[in-house]
YbbR-like domain-containing protein (Caldimicrobium thiodismutans), 205 residues
Amino acid sequence: MKREHKLKIMAFLLSVTLWYFVVWGKPVERTFEVPIQVKGALNQQYIWEINPSTVTLKLTANRNDLRKLNKQSIQIDLNLSNYPPGIHQVRIPIEKLNLPENVKIKEVTPYYVSLVIRKVSIKKIPVKVIFKEGPPSSNFKIIINPGSVNIKGFWDDLQAIEFVQTEEVDFFELKKLRVLNVKVLRPDKVLEVQPEQVKIIYLSR
């Protein structure tokens, strides 16, 4: 009986060991969403855009190795200093991924991303005050300080813009206070307006 009992225990241990190697040693797959990290600073006159900005990696390894894998250690770096202004199709540099030796890449989606680098232009244009309601008479004068602002964006988008508007101004409040600081509205496709506020001064004729 003792011998049979020992044999049963040994058989059980052997089956557990085999199960462990089959389950934990068998390669499995796992998918990771990895953001593209940008390196190599561009001149402030340029703006870049990457589409898509993340890459899907399908990795294969045994369960234990994948469980130990730190997602934060998986990085895809793109050096912008290697590319001139324009539109580029850039291959994902999977050979530079810092992965453990026993973790393999099965699939990369997408394999190429679109990189757009465009030059930013600056245009100086006048500011136009917008009143909530039309002034009751024209017997007044206003001074806008500064009277013009700089808008920043891509030149193709800036060419047609002749002026910028303020947020709506209450004429009677302006007449009462004499001076108001108001926000300048940023037109569509304009990246930046400087300064963002102007001072409106009310003067009686």
The radius of gyration is 32 Å. The chain is about 20% helix and 45% strand. The mean pLDDT is 84. The domain at 121-204 is CATH 2.170.120.40 (RNA Polymerase Alpha Subunit; Chain A, domain 2).
